[in-house]
Write a structure and sequence with these properties.
By secondary structure, this protein is α+β, with helices and mostly antiparallel strands. The chain folds into three domains: about 260 residues, alpha-galactosidase from lactobacil brevis (Beta-galactosidase, Chain A, domain 5); about 325 residues, Aldolase class I (TIM Barrel), CATH 3.20.20.70; about 90 residues, Golgi alpha-mannosidase II (Immunoglobulin-like), CATH 2.60.40. It is built from 13 helices and 40 strands. Strands 7, 8, 9, 10, 12, 13, 15, 16, 17, 21 and 22 form an eleven-stranded antiparallel sheet that branches. It has an eight-stranded parallel beta barrel with strand order 23-24-25-28-29-30-31-32, surrounded by six helices. α8 runs parallel beside α9. The protein starts with a strand and ends with a strand.
């Protein structure tokens, strides 16, 4: 039987499919000289379960393939398959200049009776039975990006599938994994979805492993009426010679094709936010205004009013109770209204940000009484949010956010989500079915974010969810950056940055320097005190430089800072804006060491290298953590071995000249840093 080869390769990725008769299979997948597929058995690409029966490329009838055009370096190929009463379109995107591809399916009911979709594996590939290590991350509040490593072929057989059932993409597990072979080559995948997802690793004995994943089928089903269709969540597949190469593929494609950009976000602005030192208990217009005055002097570019501004005019209200009543401004706290605060911020040359949990529904919110049809419920019980599967909620949410932007002249909206929808809403009077409420909620949420971006292109949308519990490649196509975690103590910061940067570029990772919390029951290590007699300039620089690794912000009582700390914070703001952030925005990131761990284990001398695309300049961050040995040599990467480089501190405190070969083979030796100290070096 004649076999036809379909080539989907780019300059870095080799991807070939074989068509034999009416059977299509993935035949070759490789990059950087390493092949990943098991060539002796079929790799079915995808699988869908329709009315209780599983269908994939081995039992569906292949009809045709066609190119859907190449736009901005993205090659889009579609493969059409026919089943009994339905069709499946397999979409494959190949991103030129990368080893990254993206796949999803469109399933259409073209029969004359309803069909039920019960499981959709967007990705289904077979890999050889070789020794590999699986890296994944779990996520809980205050313990995001906790690493877990398993040996594929041993522990993985006993290990549960990687998945989320919380209704938030990175609560439980983060929607990403990396498989590393003995030769160091890495295969990574990520589900492009903000709700429940799954990756399965099913042993096939000597035949290898079936890796499948996409939308989680737990408590999910979707009924398609004749003529209706649905798109599955996409899965991104990335290959590299090591984990840094994989991360750089994600970051480069993200910067070029996925992340929204506007003038403000492209600046990578330095942000002040009121929350941790004041929360909603102490914030009012006088407090905010006094901080705005100091923020201008210190060089901040955005001032954000977090929760506590809305609800009844009573200074004693608790912000969670009135989520949803965004039309109310707490007049006791803000008697002049929010536009007055916004005008003050703008008058001082800064941008105004405001917090809103547009999905959240507080127990005392009037909107639930006025609009009971907005309320997400499961089996008759309220779930604590408004269901975006209801088109009326989408219209209300859009109008609410548009009003916040226009009435308060907002430049930045911090969009939070502080609860677990789990399986989601199963009401059937919202426009969705009993089994797809959470699925339709997220599609509705994306529509609202897309409308806001289209109609207010100058406004930055920040993604937050109890800190970092909804971080994924879908939501990052609608929002401009991800807030990584609520706690921000130093070692925790380093752990989450190391983990998050495996999937996202540094210029969309927002976190704050070690904050001063008013909370009376903070996490054990969230104990920053600006008047601690043991706090030194070097320690403050260590805290600040950690948050300078990505988008950089501060949550402190600015008027109350000691003079020396105020001045050093102002100086660090200037250093970040003038010398650091262009690397954050443009450079490739190399994690030069293993991940530091918040529990005191892991790497204790973490180091990060930023290299501009033309390799002309590099920036090096090195931190000595508590418990670290007194000295360490850090080996740099991807330098010209024959070139002589000058290594100097950004403030002239250090200068050293040596060759690229020495920096890569022997490393940069450090033996003068104390614990909780750092160096920030430019290499030219």
């Amino acid at each position: 039987m004649h076999t036809q080869t379909v080539e989907l390769s780019t300059n870095l990725l080799e991807m070939r499919l074989n068509l034999s008769g009416q059977r299509l299979r993935l035949a070759h997948l490789s990059a950087f000289g390493a092949a990943w597929l098991h060539t002796d058995i079929d790799s079915p690409l995808f699988a869908v379960t329709v009315d209780g029966m599983r269908w994939d490329t081995t039992n569906l009838q292949f009809v045709q393939s066609h190119e859907d055009g190449s736009v901005d370096g993205i090659r889009h190929t579609v493969f059409d398959f026919q089943g009994p009463g339905f069709t499946v379109e397999e979409h494959v995107l190949a991103y030129e200049g990368s080893s990254l591809s993206e796949v999803w399916q469109t399933i259409r009911n073209d029969g004359d009776a309803p069909i039920r979709l019960e499981r959709i594996d967007t990705l289904s590939i077979t890999i050889p039975n070789i020794d590999m290590q699986l890296l994944s991350f779990t996520g809980r509040w205050g313990s995001e990006f906790e690493p877990h490593r398993y040996s594929l072929g041993k522990e993985i057989i006993l290990h549960a599938d990687l998945q989320s059932r919380s209704g938030r993409s990175s609560k439980g597990n983060h929607p990403w994994f990396a498989l590393t072979r003995r030769d160091g080559h890495v295969l990574s995948a990520s589900v492009v979805w903000s709700g429940n997802w799954i990756f399965r690793f099913e042993p096939l004995g000597r035949d290898g492993y079936q890796i499948s994943g996409g939308l989680n089928d737990w408590e999910f089903f979707k009924d398609l009426q004749p003529g209706q269709s649905m798109d599955s969540p996409a899965v991104v597949l990335t290959l590299g010679g090591n984990l840094n190469q994989v991360s750089q593929q994600y970051a480069r494609v993200g910067r070029k094709h996925w992340y929204p950009r506007n003038e403000l976000s492209s600046r990578a602005p330095v942000e002040w936010n009121h929350w941790w030192p004041y929360e909603d208990a102490e914030i009012n217009e006088e407090v905010f205004a006094r901080n705005v005055v100091e923020a201008e002097k210190m060089g901040f570019e955005v001032c954000t009013l977090d929760a506590g501004w809305f609800g009844p005019s009573d200074a004693g209200t608790f912000w969670e109770h009135y989520r949803g009543d965004w039309h109310l401004v707490n007049q006791d706290r803000f008697p002049s209204g929010l536009r007055a605060l916004s005008d003050q911020v703008h008058a001082r040359g800064m941008k105004f940000g405001i917090w809103c949990e547009i999905e959240g529904l507080g127990e005392k919110a009037q909107v639930a009484i006025d609009h009971p049809d907005y309320v997400a419920q499961r089996n008759g019980e309220r779930l604590g949010y408004v269901c975006f599967g209801n088109p009326a909620v989408q219209d209300w949410a859009y109008a609410t956010l548009a009003r916040l932007i226009t009435e308060y002249n907002a430049d930045w909206i911090k969009i939070d989500f502080n609860l677990d929808p789990a399986a989601g809403c199963n009401r059937t009077d919202h426009g969705h079915g009993a089994g797809d409420g959470l699925f339709e909620h997220y599609l509705g949420y994306y529509r609202v974010m897309g409308r806001i971006r289209e109609d207010f292109p100058h406004v930055v949308l920040e993604n937050c969810s109890s800190g970092g519990l909804r971080i994924d490649l879908a939501i990052m196509r609608y929002t401009f950056m991800a807030f990584l975690s609520d706690p921000d103590w130093a070692v925790h910061d380093l752990q989450i940055f190391w983990g998050a940067s495996t999937m996202l570029a540094p210029n969309v990772l927002l976190h704050w320097t070690y904050s001063h919390w008013r909370n009376l029951n903070p996490p054990p290590y969230q104990i920053f005190d600006p008047r601690d007699p043991n706090l030194t300039v070097k320690t403050w620089d260590y805290y600040s430089r950690i948050s300078m690794l990505g988008l950089y912000g501060l949550s402190q009582r600015l008027p109350d800072l000691p003079d020396w700390l105020w001045q050093r914070a102002e100086q660090n703001n200037r250093i970040y804006k003038e010398q650091v952030r262009r690397f954050v925005k443009e450079a490739d990131l190399y994690r030069l060491t293993e991940q530091p761990r918040r529990d005191g284990t892991g790497e204790r001398w973490p180091a990060f290298q930023y290299s501009l695309p033309d390799k002309s300049e590099h920036l090096l961050f090195i931190f000595r953590l508590p418990g670290a040995p007194a000295e360490r040599s850090i080996r740099l990467q991807d330098l010209d071995p024959a070139r002589t480089y000058t290594v100097r501190g950004l403030e002239g405190e250090f200068e050293h000249t040596t060759t690229g070969r020495t920096l890569m083979e022997d490393g940069l030796h450090l033996d003068t840093l104390g614990e909780e100290e750092s160096v920030l070096l430019k290499i030219v």
